[in-house]
Amino acid sequence: MNMKKTLRLYMALLAILICILTASGCSKSSTAAQQETISEVAEVASPVPEEKEKETFEFEGDTFKTGAVGRNGAAACASPIAAKVATDIMAKGGNAVDAAVGMIYAVGLLEPAATGIGGAGQMVIYLASEDRYVNIEYMTQAPKAAVTGALDTSTSENPPSVEALAIPGVVYGTLTALEEYGTMTAAEVLQPVIDLARNGFPVTERWNANIEGRYANLSAYDYTLGLYTDDGFLWNEGDMITNNDLADTLEMIATEGIKGFYDSDYTQKMVDYIQSIGGVLTREDFAQYRSVEREPISTTYRGYTVYTTTGPSNGGAPLLEMLNIAENFDLASYGADSPETVEILSDAFALAYQDGVAFIADPDYYDIPVDTMISKEYGQERAKSIEVGSRIKTARAGRLTISLSETGKKVLSANTPDQGGTSHMVCADSMGNVVSTTNTNGINFGSAVAVPGTGFVFNAHLANLNNMESARANQMMPYIKVRSTTCPVIVAGSTGKPVLAVGSPGNWALVSAALNAVVNYIDFDMNCAEAALAPRFWRDGISKDLYIEARYSASTLEALKGMGFELMESDKDYGAHVGCVAAVEIGEDGLIYAIGDDRRHYGASAY
Fold this sequence. Notes:
By secondary structure, the chain is α+β, with helices and mostly antiparallel strands. Helices cover 38% and strands 16% of the residues.
């Protein structure tokens, strides 16, 4: 039987099996069976040489069977199919960077609400051969016309303002990572994603949930609605669908590279359509775009070193500040399920959140006080505001300063005319390379604008910039990089080598989820699965609202109420507002463990 016939047979079986599972009223525990079936489709779509004998490993804490363990490589992300794409790339000789790039494009196909070619991202890489950590920043960028107050950048209407479109960075950043640190060509890495787009992939529960949440936006554009629905109707869960336009785009990128997307007839096609519906992006805007390689920022935490991203991410420095604050308290003595631990971490979050909002922006345009924010001394000073057993009622930003850099001053004076749509991915290879990357459309489905024939939606990221002239930070101006909370993390052990890579989607909840996972791993000696799936909470900014899961003990929940917290979603075992962790752990036993958080039906693969 040839490959196409075999693939069609597996697709048919998948649709039947998932329909049966759905009809029988699947509970949460059925997720593992569905993911196992989906993994079989992924294996057929992107085959690798069969192993003579496949080892099996125990993975303590993998409650929903959304994890995977292997000796050679592992990956976790929003889709088990995309995770399998990553491990297949590694099995064919690619390294973790090759695998991460393939996975980014696969997730863009399979979870298009959260990420894709029209969005942005940050990537933290550990290069084993150089014993070096690298941060590739490919955030979206304001166009030349982005003058403070001159554009309508609102995303509160249906659909968001077309003037809120920013220049996307995913293609530039991923191809740069591949060129600098990968071992495969773009054509080799993108081919399995192209095959999935053309041959078909299954509609999931989350696919339809994302569409329902943004249906009004999507329905504003006939082409966009046609990309993700069946002529305006939701597909059935388990239906096999295709995206041939995206496959064509990926083939163009594989052939023509960065120039093909950012300065070509294809670029002109995008610009012409965007301008025809009221947008302001130009071909010049695309042609001048560059991703940036930056030094990751880091702090130590109880003998470990935690690496993440600097500005324009305003999640990375606050995360490190939170850890430095938390280090002043003996969390292990209180325990993971204790009101003291929850209160200390939620207060640390509130304090650092204020600093992240007040003092972080594009570091090329602003002189930002990152070094002070992530210092031990500043963490100790901020920790003095926390009184164990009493919630901080008014969290304020610290006494720091942010000012325009010379570049920022020059540009500004020139007068030149949700839970959030985000996804996290991690992978590690047998050579010791590790990648942690967060990619985002901003809000789900971004602007909802998809240029006919391209197969993907554009972001509406200019809404993240401050559009008022009185702004002291993150002010809209031409070609400034857009701020986002993305903070992919790699944790190194005492040898300096990675032991954990972790991250989450979820706007500011993603920072809290990363904090919880790191603390669970270090303070409470959990493995990556236990750390990802343990009861979790998120404080809504500086408010008293605390989203917290019902698996905390009744005594802890009652004590938190007594501190004045307003408990939200405390009747749910797994909350919708606490982020969704993807993590890989490099074990001392020589194995690589990967976990996809079942809160959003993430998955993993290993070999």
